[in-house]
Design goal:
about 1050 residues; mainly beta; about 5% helix
């Protein structure tokens, strides 16, 4: 599309802050405070007077540009999006509409987004390339399923070449972000991505939603984004200079925008932020206060005042205590809580509060014989038992209310379980997985109540109470009116606790646990990290999410694949992010074995987004034998090494994906199922692998099709084998070997938009196949496919058996998950390459931190070891826990190591990304920190700065220092030296000619032989570092 000449374009990305409000209702009240730590800061509460207007009005002077749309037009804009545009150009609709006392510009998205609108150059008076662009934005729901960017563009040079800042809006607020973006020839990079809660209003209305203020500041080569007045991130880039055009971009969201201003960046924004940032709050009346921390800052950086108003003080009371606001749920009803900046009345935050009735113990009694689990008066009940009440016919759940469990000895409430707004936490040894959950549900004629994890103690007696209105049903012919202490539904938990390494989970009968998570948490909390443990799960349906972390050698063994079912509805909308939405989250575990069972995420496609059955977030090994994994979108998300043998994987949208070294599907069925949303077509795989790894391999398997969960079928020629994620940062390594394919696979096999990496596959990288067949075993004509066809020799030496495919495991130690099978022993043996450097993924410390185990692989290495390139993921350095990927040698005695840091991965905001040289005892088995020293760089704000650090004694804290800004490249060298128990850390910016010592210190007990080499802890995935001119002398 041709852009208007010299238009200043505003690119809209995400939601901008500040929300307009109206005058308080008669029964409202307000409190006010100064945002200051001064204990003398006062707060008061009184009936609301008429508030200042919250409608922004453009001033007569002081800005380079201002449009509040008060004249009811968009005459200062050139609107490029139109329903009449040809295919491929933005085709949404703009109009200016009344919104209460205000006018706003509305954009209603259609099927195509892009560069939507530009500010008319004739309306601008910008003196230099240093300026800010600010707007209030209110995102709206629409049918977008891909990227959901709302950006303010600036320094626009030409189509597809610009800077921008704004919002990344997702269905789940856990995944929404504020971002800085750079587009080069239409390819968008997002160097700053900071999580912030951003909600969407309902579609086709001006009601609901939240206004956000986004400011994009450009000063020289520094780009900064503000969200609701808060500086959330900066990035340095020199490619686009000059004023450029200013405009709006979306891909592809509906929204309203208002109060677009451009001004002098020396004038900073007013800040008003609340934490938690959620704009919804659900609570039961007469329960604990909801506490909000408020940050209010004037444009000059000084603390600001703020006021807080409750639209219905009979429902929610407000008490301001300094910077904290206590909201008290007083009575059933709804209220809007409004926070208003003291220095800018248009800067507003709101919380919509829904207060459910206070719990009142019912007095009704019933004959509960044969109606309840646990039975009335039952003893020796397992502590993770679910509570069940069976009705005459199918009951329904009310809109609100709760069930409670009381300790019988003192009537203390030990658990409050609500119909709405529930969460539960699944513990491991060092952290918990907290999820939005459903704790009460209907199952046939019964209502099942799941107590929160770990609330029941051994050897205690409890009774159950359920508020009136929670359940609508009949019990023994009578209307259910709730039950309380008078109903005498009591039970006692067993005083015994499980023991040993062989555990049983069963719905009824003798067992150690009633839930699978109960057994997993026992294994993590009570057994050693490497102790082998088998969890035998009896036939039944176990409705629960799962979590396993830092536990190796665990086997989860069902009684039968068909009848042992673990199922749960979890997805991006309920629990956003890759760690939130899977049914089963596995972190940093090795040799997890799943066999003879089915795991199903019951989310329907289009009803919550991505919905994995399992996310294996580990660089280690996963085994699935005679197992089934069922979902629709994103069924499997994998890292590390995994082997699926004689198993079933079903889905329909990118349902196998991830960042694997090698994932082998052998003698397995990959079943594409009909889409429950009525759509047709899709993709089986999306690979995001390191360079030259095996990736996703399908050996002697079948690609089949079948009915989806709503009975939909899969048509011929509608599904691609894979599509690319479209990034050059990872590779599309997928290989089909001796695979039978049904007619639902497209005749062209692969989906080529976006272009895969590599665009042209080779024997070691990209999309590949060997001996592909139709479903009957007859050869397919693959001559029109874009994939690389392996030769017989390439097949026999690289993909003939599982030992070849897993040859790189553990630094080429190799892994054969079924060594007793000798039928493929005639395949060629893969020898480890001659290398100087060894690769290790290390986790050191006491487990108290939040570090994810780093993973990685050596991509390229000079024969003499003088250069090495490796790609690493995850990892993090914290005070008492450090995880990093290390490329090293064992060195005995004193040494000097020098190396040029040629290049490193991309900067990600909000982490340090240390990378450099390392000397380390690296005792990962000690469960404490281990002595080491390092020198290199880390990211600080927008800059790479020098850093050295150490742990001087086992169990000690990580100490660090540094701070000189440097740039990786031809002249940046580092030196790490050992002399006895002392180390010396230095850097050079003149190509190693002269070194500046950063620091030195002395260890307490450094072993004679240690690991010495190069490391990275990038925190994010697939970050590549290159070290050259490596010299190790002794």
């Amino acid at each position: 599309m041709n852009q208007p000449k010299w238009l200043y374009v505003l690119l809209l990305s995400s939601a901008l802050a500040a929300c307009g409000g109206s005058s308080s209702p008669e029964n409202g009240s307000s409190s006010s405070s100064s945002s200051s730590s001064n204990p003398a800061s006062s707060s008061s509460s009184s009936a609301s007077s008429e508030p200042a207007s919250t409608v922004f009005v453009c001033p007569d002077s002081g800005l380079y540009f201002c449009d509040d749309f008060a004249d009811g037009t968009a005459d200062q804009w050139v609107l490029q999006s139109s329903p009449d545009n040809p295919e491929g150009e933005p085709n949404g609709t703009f109009d200016v509409v009344e919104d209460g006392d205000n006018h706003v510009l509305r954009f209603t998205a259609a099927s195509q987004g892009g560069e939507l609108a530009f500010i008319d150059v004739n309306a601008l008076e910008i003196p230099s390339e240093d300026y800010y662009v600010e707007a209030r934005i209110r995102p709206r729901e629409n049918s977008t399923t891909g990227n959901k960017f709302l950006y303010l563009m600036a320094r626009y040079h030409s189509e597809g070449n610009w800077y921008a800042a704004g919002l990344n809006v997702q269905n789940n607020t856990d995944s929404t972000k504020v971002e800085i973006a750079k587009s080069v020839d239409g390819t968008i990079d997002r160097p700053v991505q900071v999580g912030r809660e951003i909600v969407q209003g309902p579609r086709d209305t001006l009601e609901g939603g939240q206004w956000y203020t986004v400011r994009f500041e450009l000063i020289g080569d520094t780009l900064t984004v503000y969200f609701n007045g808060e500086n959330v991130g900066s990035h340095t880039d020199t490619d686009y200079t000059g004023i450029g055009d200013i405009g709006l971009f979306t891909a592809n969201k509906s929204f309203e925008i208002d109060d677009v201003v451009i001004g002098d960046p020396a004038n900073k924004p007013v800040q008003l932020t609340i934490d938690p940032a959620s704009n919804e709050w659900i609570a039961e009346a007469q329960t604990d206060d909801y506490v909000i921390d408020v940050t209010a800052v004037q444009s000059n950086g000084n603390p600001d005042t703020f006021s807080v108003d409750s639209s219905n003080t009979a429902v929610v009371g407000v008490d301001v205590q300094g910077n904290q606001v206590h909201l008290s749920p007083l009575a059933e009803g709804e209220a809007t809580i409004t926070f208003t900046s003291g220095s800018d009345a248009t800067l507003v935050r709101t919380i919509e509060a829904t207060i459910t009735p206070a719990f009142v113990q019912p007095t009704a009694v019933y004959d509960l014989a044969e109606r309840v689990v646990p039975a009335v008066g039952a003893t020796d009940i397992l502590r993770d038992t679910r509570i069940k009440l069976t009705f005459d016919d199918v009951p329904t759940l009310g809109a609100a209310g709760s069930a409670r469990i009381y300790r019988a000895s003192d009537d203390a409430v030990v658990d409050n379980i609500s119909v709405l707004g529930e969460q539960d936490s699944l513990p491991s040894a060092d952290r918990a997985r907290t999820l939005n959950t459903e704790q009460i549900w209907v199952e046939d004629n019964s209502v099942v109540i799941a107590p929160h994890y770990g609330v029941l103690e051994p050897g205690e007696t409890y009774y159950v109470a359920i508020a009136d209105g929670v359940i609508d049903g009949t019990l023994n012919g009578a209307e259910f009116e709730g039950l309380g202490k008078d109903a005498a539904w009591t039970f006692s938990t067993t005083a015994d606790t499980p023991s040993g390494n062989e555990l049983t989970v069963a719905e009824t009968g003798e067992a150690d646990f009633r839930t699978v998570q109960g057994a997993l948490s026992y294994a993590m909390l009570e057994l050693g990290k490497d102790d082998a443990v088998t969890v035998n799960v009896m036939n039944g349906t176990y409705r629960e999410p799962l979590y396993l972390r830092n536990k190796n050698n665990l086997t989860l063994r069902g009684e039968s694949r068909e009848n042992t079912r673990i199922e749960y509805r979890n997805n991006e909308q309920l629990n956003g992010g890759t760690s939130g939405r899977p049914l089963f989250l596995v972190e940093s575990a090795d040799m997890l074995v799943l066999e003879h069972l089915t795991i199903e995420n019951t989310t329907l496609v289009g009803d919550g987004g991505q919905a994995e059955t399992i996310y294996f977030n580990s660089s280690h090994r996963l085994v699935a034998k005679d197992a089934a994994f069922l979902s629709e979108q994103d069924t499997l998300l994998l890292k590390g090494y995994s082997w699926f043998y004689e198993s079933l994987v079903a889905g329909n949208v990118d349902y196998i994906w991830g960042y694997v070294e090698a994932a082998l599907f052998e003698n397995s069925e990959i079943r594409t199922v009909g889409r429950s949303d009525g759509g047709s077509g899709g993709y089986i795989l999306q690979a995001r692998t390191p360079d030259s790894v095996k990736g996703f391999v399908f050996l002697n398997s079948a690609l089949t099709r079948g009915e989806g969960p709503t009975g939909a079928n899969v048509a011929d020629n509608t599904f691609a084998l894979a599509r690319s994620g479209g990034s050059q940062d990872y590779f599309d390594n997928v290989v089909f070997v001796n695979t039978r394919m049904d007619d639902h696979i497209r005749s062209s096999a692969w989906h080529t938009d976006p272009t895969p990496n590599p665009a042209t596959a080779i024997a070691t990288n990209g999309w590949r196949e060997y001996n592909s067949m139709d479903i009957n075993g007859d050869p397919l004509d693959t001559s029109g496919w874009v994939s690389y066809s392996l030769s017989q020799q390439e097949y026999e030496t690289g993909f003939c058996n599982r030992a070849q495919i897993f040859a790189t495991w553990d630094n080429w130690a190799g892994w054969d998950p079924l060594p007793e099978d000798t039928s493929d022993d005639d395949c060629a043996v893969v020898d480890a390459p001659d290398t100087v450097w060894n690769a290790d993924s290390l986790m050191l410390g006491d487990g108290s931190g939040t570090a994810m185990l780093a993973s990685g692989a050596i991509d390229e290495e000079a024969e003499d070891g003088t250069s090495v390139t490796f790609t690493a993921s995850d990892g993090k350095f914290e005070n008492l826990e450090q995880s990093f990927f290390l490329v090293s040698q064992d060195v005995t005695g004193d040494f000097v190591l020098t190396a040029r840091l040629k290049s490193v991965g991309a900067h990600y905001s909000a982490n340090q990304f240390p990378v450099g040289l390392m000397m380390c005892e690296c005792d990962a088995a000690s469960d404490t920190t281990s002595v080491f020293a390092h020198v290199g760089i880390h990211m600080s704000g927008n800059d790479w700065v020098t850093q050295y650090g150490h742990i001087l004694a086992d169990g000690g804290n990580w100490g660090k220092d540094g701070g000189t800004v440097v740039s990786p490249g031809d002249t940046l060298y580092f030196k790490l030296e050992r002399q006895g128990q002392a180390y010396y850390a230095s850097y050079s910016t003149d190509g190693g000619g002269t070194y500046t010592q950063l620091g030195a210190n002395t260890f307490t007990d450094l072993p004679e032989t240690i690991m010495v080499g190069m490391f990275a802890a990038p925190y994010e995935d697939n970050q590549t570092s290159t070290f050259e001119d490596i010299q190790l002398s002794q």
